[in-house]
Protein: Aldo/keto reductase
Amino acid sequence: MHYRNLARTGIKVSQYALGGGMYGALTSEKDSIKIILQAIDAGINLIDTSNRYADGESERIIGQAIKGRREDVILATKFGAEANSGLNQSGGSRRWVRQAVEQSLKRLQTDYIDLYQLHQPFSDTSFEEILGTLTDLVQEGKVRYIGTSNHQAWQLMEAQAVSGRHHLQRFVSEQSPYSMINRSIEQDITEMALRYELALLTYGPLAGGLLTGKYTAGQAADSHSRAARLRGSAALALDPELPENKQKFDVIHQLQMVANQAGISLAHMAVAFVQSHPAVTSTILGPRTSEQLGQFIAGADLRLSPDVLDAIDTIVPPGKRLDDKEQMWTPGWLNSSRRRRA
Structure:
């Protein structure tokens, strides 16, 4: 396992981060704890979750798993994308963030969170409000560092400016989707991260399982696969039987041919591709089983040659997103109420 600097914090984090999205949802508590301990033993020291995952069960399971191993872990969680429909029970307000952090600390069974991240941007809450609250939490010792997730480059720059102008804590990291078929962050976020020394934690390197090589255009997905388990828009993006997905699966087939020629698996090539970008600090992996984690770890030392990277660039050009379904989230300003005059 290789380690990289988390921005300029002085903290070293593993090239792979363990994502907790499956825990308490598709993976049982027993199996989740097994995976977490396996990851720590393999040298993965960054564990990422959210208070949203499985309605907080992911945090609770992680807290249970790392008892006695807390100092071996850089613990990251997120707030602000809660599914709670109660008034003032989600978002980025000082009132809610204060409640959310206490709930997360309790579930995680810890006195502090190493990296506390804003899960998504908010148009109705100022960065002054959010950063002011997070600064207080850092000063109180409940949070060590702060970061963002799913933000645009201009929003990250605005936050940096607010921090400097008001002498508030600075976001040290951003979480963004990045894969061989979703390279949109190369347009601006990767360069901004390098220029302003922001740690970039990328997720979705396998594009929800599309880049594992287990799906074939026109053929039904295996009943145990993620494509068969998911519902809604996420399932549509993975469905190999949908005619509108044919072009995407044709491109994935071309990528498979590159992997075959290089003598590596498509999944290993996909993760190594993300790791090859100099702006990427750590890649968040979300294995559902212990076996899947073992496969990821087996590819930790893989480095792609310039010829392989050039071949990938030819199939999916830099900065391109193959499918709008790969965006992972929809900005609030694309809602009709924000695009039309009253």
User: Anything to note?
Assistant: Residues 246-262 form the longest helix (17 residues). The two ends are 55 Å apart (CA to CA).
